[in-house]
From TrEMBL:
SUPFAM superfamilies: Ankyrin repeat. It comes from the Eukaryota. This is ANK_REP_REGION domain-containing protein. InterPro entries: Ankyrin_rpt-contain_sf.
Amino acid sequence: MATNGAEARQEDLEYRLMNLDFDAKKFPELEDLQITGRLQEVGRIVGKHLDNEHLMQYITRFRKQQNRLNAAMAAIEENNLKKLRNLVDRDLVEARNSRNGRAAVHYAAVQKNAIYDTLIDCGADGSLADSLGITAAQYRQNPNLTIPSPLMISKSTDLTFKRYSFDEHQYDPDGDVEQLEQIFLDGRGYLLADKTSKNMAASQFLNGSSKYQ
């Protein structure tokens, strides 16, 4: 019975994923799945549809945006306004990460500098709440509210970028396909370039994902 429930849940997720607007520049559905820890399930579904060019391009844009968001948060932590300005656009200021669904403006709100105001000027929404229900404006106004540094994230709290460790020099050609899927999803697909496998499923994934590196 539990197996049937899991299968139904997976089928529902696949239906939702395959009916997204693949031309969209924003990714609220994927962000929600990432926040709730279901991105690995997304990876398994993506692995079944490697020949769907629109889906693959959509996923590629999402992972690139998440990598830019991580870079923007690092720039905020470093108080590097020049670097931040080079990264920020309207879509990025609305993007949320896997750590309690926070946007760049949440991290800027707890910093004692003017970066928060810069993000607001760029279109960030101070009334945006994270998954704890706290808005960026509330973080800004209440000095007792804190957010852990985005540069000090543990494996247990990061649902996307730290789920697997991967060393290209320790690549297992007959390894776990789910690991390969996650590497692709978290933006490290370049590590899979020119890799081969005797495992049929892994080989199919490597061949299908190579065009989207």
